[in-house]
Amino acid sequence: MLYTFDGTFDGLLSCVFDAFARKEDVTEVLRTWDEIPLFCLDAMRHVDTELAHARRVWLKLEKCMSRTVLNSLVKSFLYAPVEVSFYSTLFRFICRAMVSEIRIEGDFGDADVLAVLNNSRKVSYEASRMRQFVRFQKAVNGTYFAMIEPLYDVLPLAIGHFVDRFADSRFIIYDRIRDYGFFYDGKESHRIVLSSDAPHMVTGNLDETIADADEAMFKKLWRTYFNATAIPERTNPRKQRQDMPHRFWKYLTEVNGV
Amino acid sequence: MTESTLNKLKILAEAARYDVSCSSSGTVRNNKDKGIGNTVGGIGVCHSFAADGRCISLLKVMMSNVCLYDCAYCISRRSNDIPRATLTVKELVNLTIEFYRRNYIEGLFLSSAIVKNPDFTMECMVQVAKELREVHRFNGYIHLKGIPGASLELINLAGRYADRMSVNVEIPKQKSLQYLAPEKNHKNIYEPMKYINTAVLENREDRRSLLHVPRFIPAGQSTQMIVGASDDTDHDILTLSSSLYRAKSMRRVYYSGYVSVNTYDSRLPALKQPPLVRENRLYQADWLMRFYQFRADELVDPKNPNLDLDVDPKIGWALRHPEFFPIDVNKAPYEMLLRVPGIGVKSANLIVNARRYRALGSDHLKKIGVVLKRAQYFIVCRELPSAVIGDLSPEYVKLRLMLPSGPSRRTVDRYPSLF
User: Fold this and answer.
1) Does A46 contact B at CB distance below 8 Å?
2) Residues forming CATH 3.20.20.70 domain(s) in chain B
3) Is the pLDDT of residue B417 over 70?
């Protein structure tokens, strides 16, 4: 049996619910719009997302795994769009966790358990890279603005960090790939969609008409510091790129040259 | 902020860059009442990586490089003819806050040359930290350098505002230190270190029993040793670090490969390149002491006073102790797994968990993240054992481990053979 669902986490949990309720042997779980694997002759069924079903599965999951593992499960769900077959892995992992008499979360000899852990690590790592590489620019109205292009949809995981940190200011962090962002207004953060093609929405760089008067000076100070702090005798571009991959450089004030 | 600040920042960042410490870890400082800054969860954040590959976490800058002392290894020594500058308290505070707001940095690492006298210098530095914390309610990370010879009252005051403090040992042996830095002595270095350690422990005790005791240097202290400027051996260095780590508040010892900045001084070795490999081996040894339960005397001893530059110290230890291996990954306790080259803390943890469910084979180990290329000579697993160190000889295993791995697939793809 092949299940399709709407691509949400609740949808995936609804698939689990259905598989148990209808006692079906599910081999593959895909999103509605994903391509069906070659030579797949299994019957196909679309599972509608039922919040009540998803909730029941979740409550059961809370009993059969620790909070840390639930956390990894949700995080690795954010990784799944990259590797579509991973939805099936997640599905198998959840089903096995629910029927197993013992907790399966430490069974790293099992490919599914290990994949859930490894992929959640990739997602956490990408989220921590947001904490590292987000660069704000101050706009005329005092709002700080940053553009990002993460590999996975990790902005929701990272936004809390910035809210805690810059609680006294207003800022926007915008995911250009997924075309949404968060605006923190000094009290709480809101999800926003700025479908605009203003120059700064393309380059991520506020030009002098909308940037704060001091912004250019601070960029210059930061670049000066960045260059001065490197020891010329130890130059090591390979290490630099390893820890700060090129894909981030576009929005990094110290290296993007805008 | 003007061009003059820019010039000063350049001079003082260049002067501060030989200090390696950059970590912003080990402290939690919550943002209260909508202030600025929040330092979380004990893990640091590296915001950027400079052209030398070192991380930039804090704004690492000297307050001043106008120095009274004449230490042979130091770029800012009195007798050097270099541009001198001093940043004002206001400039430093402003730079820190504005950089922090743009998410460039985690906080400030302030150090200084000895201006006028140690007390004066320390007092100015404390002023910066005080203003950041009290006027701007800044909850970012502050690392202050303890100036050797400054009065303990000032160190105490600094500790109320700083997350971490460090007093640099620089040269492990008193004799070498006297030779290279006649104005410094070990007493002036160890005294504030000891003071910080006692004060941190007392503070921890007080906070347990009394309410509302302000925190004192919550992220503890660190220090640094210069490698390759004197003739001290790795044995001297590691023995000193391990005794430093015995102090509860000592979180990190950094090793800084000496960069020949003062080539004219005949007391110093003329190095074309900083001793990067040796520095790396020392860090690996340091890691083994902190996370792998190795003792300093297991890594180096008076007979082998220096670490082997060809292989990492963990392999070095394994080669000297073939009787310890092979280890059965399905049975050996965690501590023994940690001793296997190619198995790190992460994979050792996974192994201990996974083997409760099934016997692990080499395919499992590979997926878990064990580097079989190294580990294969030291372990047995579910399959029949391959040749291990006892069957081969330590010399042979060393040669095999040092072999460069074949041409990477990428180079093969890029330059296909013509024939």
Assistant:
1) no
2) 3-299
3) no
pLDDT (tens digit, 9 = 90+) per residue, A31-69? Answer: 999 888 777 778 889 999 999 999 999 999 999 999 999
Burial class (CB in 10 A: 0-12, 13-18, 19+), B257: buried
Which tens digit of pLDDT belongs to each residue from B139-155?
999 999 999 889 999 99
* Record: contact B13-A229, CB cut-off 8 A: yes
Q: Where are the domains of chain A?
A: 2-126, 134-256
- At residue B410, the pLDDT reads 45
What pLDDT, on the 0 to 100 scale, is given for residue B416? 45
**Partner residue facing A240 (CB), from B38, B49, B260:** B49
Q: Can you point out the beta strands (E) in B104-170? A: 107-111, 141-145, 164-166
Closest residue by Cα to residue B379 from B403, B356, B355, B415: B355
Q: pTM, whole model, 2 decimals?
A: 0.90
Helix segments in B246-376, DSSP class H: 276-291, 296-299, 313-320, 334-337, 345-354, 362-368, 372-375
Of B48, B103, B357, Cβ closest to residue A107: B357
Two tokens, residue A87 = 């939805």
Residue B8 C-alpha, separation from nearest chain A C-alpha, in angstroms: 10
- The ipTM, to two decimals, is 0.92
E strands of chain A, at which residues?
Answer: 2-5, 28-31, 44-46, 137-138, 144-148, 171-175, 180-184, 189-192
Q: Does domain B3-299 have CATH number 3.40.50.300?
A: no
CB atoms within 10 A of CB A18: 21
